[in-house]
Amino acid sequence: MEKLSGEKNGADTKAADVLISVRNLHVRYAQREILHGINLEAHSGETVVILGGSGSGKSTLLRTMVGLEKPSGGEIWIAGKNLAVISAPDLKEIRKKMGMSFQGGALFGSMTVGENVALPLREHTKLEESTIEIMVRLKLEHVGLLGYESYMPSQLSGGMKKRAAVARALAMDPAILFFDEPSAGLDPIIAAGIDNLILQLKKAFHMTIIVVTHELASAFLIADRMILIDKGYVVAAGTPENMRDCTQPRVRQFLDRVAEPEVAGEMDYLQMLTEGTSNTEGTVEDKRGA
């Protein structure tokens, strides 16, 4: 992995500030390994954007970080608990500290917007209905949908469905908010509105935000730190400025939207990843992790 100048490391940041720590993570489906020794950290109040093309493994990484996939090796530490070995009851408690906005919104079509937002509160708390109704209105107000409580998801536009999904993700006041392709399928103006919403949420609640995307304009706008994943490896990590200035060939190919070259075999692929790194700042580590 290429560590770009300006990236945080353990020596620079107190351990207590690290809210998420992924260590040498491997994920395998049958005989095929999807993630090869992924390492990353997210600090309290930080927005980390995970970049990558189709099939890069970024969505698998996200699902594993929220406990929807079981790792075949490595550790995922969130709020002091290792999700790789955690019990089901403990995982349920940790998930209460997380909010997840899925790519398509994943709203229940048979429920109103208000009922969708209220669902986590009704499932995981013993709050009075009057209190839940107040909290639903507050969450919808945060995302600009106050007054849409009685609407059905089918009556909403694509951008409004995304916002409603964010309101539901905020229902339990999470410390960590995960987004899977938040601007996918949206026109540029609506996508920019979602980007601004993410920025507003970070400023208002100082929450840690993890965003998986391949949308470069969004990534460079919202990220404090960026990680580029390719074929299950972390290729580079650093600030948006560091990433933009990076001359590593695979980074440049992704950022400059250059068509995929023909690569014969894993060794040729790894050679291409490390080619030219002597001209960049930082160090190069084994792609397979420690």
Overall pLDDT score? 86
Classify the helix fraction into a percent range: 25-40%
Largest sheet: 7 strands, mixed
- The tally of beta strands, per DSSP, is 11
Rg:
20 Å
The separation of the N and C termini measures 11 Å
Shape category: globular
How many H/I helical runs?
10
Strand order of the largest sheet: 1-11-10-4-9-8-7
- The poorly predicted ranges are 5-13, 277-290
Query: What fraction of the residues are assigned to beta strands by DSSP?
Result: 15-25%
Q: What class do helices, strands and sheet pairing give?
A: alpha/beta
Describe, in plain words, how this protein is organized in 3D.
- It is globular, with a radius of gyration of 20 Å.
- A hairpin with a 2-residue loop joins strand 2 (18-29) and strand 3 (32-43).
- Strands 1-11-10-4-9-8-7 form a seven-stranded mixed sheet, with helices on both faces. It has a four-stranded antiparallel sheet with strand order 3-2-5-6, covered by helices on one side.
- Helix 3 (113-124) crosses helix 4, helix 3 packs parallel to helix 5 (158-169) and helix 4 packs across helix 5 (158-169).
- The chain is α/β, with parallel strands linked by helices.
- It has helices at residues 58-65, 88-95, 113-124, 129-142, 158-169, 188-205, 216-222, 240-245, 249-255, 265-274; strands spanning 2-3, 18-29, 32-43, 47-51, 73-78, 81-82, 98-101, 176-180, 208-213, 225-230, 233-238.
